[in-house]
Amino acid sequence: MLILTIILLITTTLLGGIFFVLFRWAVKDGQFDDPEEAKYVIFREEERHADGAVDGGSK
After folding, report:
1. What are the beta bridge partners of residue 54?
2. Measured between alpha carbons, how far is 46 from 9 in angstroms, rounded to an integer?
3. Helix boundaries (H) for 1-59
4. Measured between alpha carbons, how far is 12 from 9 in angstroms, rounded to an integer?
5. What does the pLDDT look like over 3-27, one tens digit per residue?
6. Whether the predicted model's global pTM rises above the 0.70 cut
7. For 45-53, which contacts have Cβ atoms below 8 Å and span 24 or more sequence positions?
8. Interatomic CA distance for residues 51 and 49, integer angstroms
9. Nearest CA to 5 among 20, 16, 18, 13?
10. What is the C-alpha separation between 19 and 29, in angstroms, rounded?
11. Is a pLDDT exceeding 70 seen at residue 35?
């Protein structure tokens, strides 16, 4: 039982550290600079490509 507790403590500490590092990377990368931006993306005019598809997808 004690070994399972130690394994769980180590695992949760490692996972917490990994997620903290990923969060810091996202903040430095600018992912959270403008959270209001996401709701206005739908109103932008879509870019049409040469084959007539929208945003590079297939027709």
Report:
1. 48
2. 49
3. 2-29
4. 5
5. 999 999 999 999 999 999 999 999 9
6. no
7. none
8. 6
9. 13
10. 15
11. yes
